[in-house]
Structure formats: structure tokens, C-alpha cells
Amino acid sequence: MPSTSAPAWSPSWTDPPVRTLPTSPRSIVKKRIIGGLIAVLLAVVGTVLILQYVSAAESRAMGDAKATSVYVVTTAVPAGTTAQQLPEYVEATEYPAKAVPSDAVRSLTELEGRVSTVELQPGEQVLASRFATPEELEEKRKVPVPKGLQEISVALAPQRVVGGQLEAGDLVGVFVSLEGAKKSKDIPFSQLALHQVLVTQVQGLPAVEAETGAKADGQEPSANGSTDPDAPAVPEDAVIVTLALDTPDAERLVYAQEFGLTWLSHQTKDTTDDGSRPVTKEEVHE
């Protein structure tokens, strides 16, 4: 017998259609206004954040560039200028902190009692390391005596000490002239007696303007009688030169000073005494 099945049940209705409410013109305008306000707010916030970032970056970049006041040379400062004379040669100027050395002078009172040790050129910052007290300068004019040697001083006219331009630490040759000796048959002679002698100190009177010396192009003669402003100054009186010598050489120098004449030459470490010999008038006229 054939089986029969009941037909599948299905609803007799369908879902009702979705109804959309009509949008009023006022609602549309309101949404646009709100959207515009949000966009403006976001733009303002973004601008503020960007400005803050840029400001922070500039602060980091300029952290070392904060301006600080230091003194700068406006007119060449001669060596030996005192702190009291300095205001006419310098002026206070703002410089980035990063470009200012640690010993730059920020107040001239820092240099009280000091003098410039070198000539300062226009445009350079005034540095405390370029100044020293008279006592410090005196120490710099003297070098230690090598072990085993002794100091002995001679007072000579400027022309006998290379125009007075020797400094502590220089090497000199000592030439002596005597009335006579066995080697020269009692004929006056001159000879290099000491070689490569260390100068430990030089003392001399302050340089003064020479009494003679013609003016050129309206220039005043310098202390050496020359119109060249860069020419070294020549002391007016004797220059005292202190030398480091062993005992035999010190004895020879004392004898030369007591009974003859002495000249000093400026030597270098490469200067030799090759060819040295007693020179008499015969050798001079050869």
C-alpha cells in the first residue's frame, strides 16, 4: 500500500516591508553642523599637537644655544695690558652658550690684578687663560736648573745678548775676548768658550723709546730706533742673563767676566762648534 506524507507546512504570510522614516531638512543641517564642528575640533587639536612638537624640538635644538654675555676684542690688545686698561679694547657681546669656551671672561673683575700675556686680536673672545699675574709671569721667565748644574749671572749690554731678545729656556754660546794667552802668544784673541749653555732666566730694564731714529711717514721711532712697529724692543741698559753651568765652565765664565769681555750668541739644538779656534787680528784680516 503506497505511503502518503503530509505536505510541508509553510506560513501563509510574508514579512512586512521595512518602513523608513522620512529625513527632515532640519535633521540634515544639524548633522552637517555637528560634522563640521568635529572636523574643526580635530583640526585645532592636530595643530596644537604639531606646534607643541615643533616647540619641543626647537627647545632641544636650542638648549645649548642660549645666549650668554662674554667680552670680545674690538681693538688689538698689546701684550702686557692690565685689566684696568682692558675696557677700551673690548666690549660685551651675546654669544650662543655652545660657542663660548669654559674660560671665557664674562666680567672684567675676573682679571683684576692680571695682565695679558700675548697680543689679542679683534674678533676673538677674551679668555682668562691669556692673562696672568706678575708673579706668574716671573715664574714663566725662569726654567728649572738641570741636576748637577749651578746658576751664574752676567750683566751685559743689549748688543752682547742678541739685542736683549733671549728668553729662559734658550741655548747660547759664550764667546770671550782676552788680552792674551799662551796659545796666542799673549796676543789678544776671541773664541767660543762655552757651547749649548742653557739660559734659566733673563732680566732687563723696561724698553724705552730710543732718543734717535728718524720718523718715516709720520711714524714714531720704536724702542730700537726703527720705524717698524713690529721690530723687537731693545732694553736701554744692561741685561742680566742667568746661565746653568757645571763648576769648570762657571769658573771659565767668571774669569772671562773679570779679565775680559763676553758675548752671547743665540743657538739651537742643531748649532755646532765646528771650526772654533782662537781668533786674533791676523785671522780677522785673512
What does this protein look like?
By secondary structure, this protein is α+β, with helices and mostly antiparallel strands. Among the domains are: 65-138, Antifreeze-like/N-acetylneuraminic acid synthase C-terminal domain (Type Iii Antifreeze Protein Isoform Hplc 12), CATH 3.90.1210; 143-211 and 233-284, no CATH class. It has helices at residues 25-61, 134-140, 247-259, 281-284, and strands spanning 67-73, 90-96, 115-116, 131-132, 150-156, 171-178, 189-204, 239-245, 260-267. The strands form 3 sheets. It has a 5-stranded antiparallel beta sheet with strand order 5-8-7-6-9. It has a two-stranded antiparallel ribbon with strand order 1-2. Strands 3-4 form a two-stranded antiparallel ribbon. It is rod-shaped. The termini are far apart.
Q: If strands are numbered along the chain, what order do they take across the biggest sheet?
A: 5-8-7-6-9
Distance between the termini: 167 Å
Write down how many β-strands occur, each being a DSSP E stretch of 2 or more residues.
9
| Beta fraction | 15-25%
- Specify the structural class: alpha+beta
What gross morphology would you assign? Answer: rod-shaped
Rg over CA atoms, rounded to whole Å, is: 45 Å
Number of helices: 4
Q: Report the uncertain regions.
A: 205-227
Helix coverage percent of residues? 10-25%
Instruction: Give the mean pLDDT.
Output: 78
Task: Report the major sheet.
Answer: 5 strands, antiparallel
Series of secondary-structure elements, N-terminal to C-terminal: HEEEEHEEEEHEH
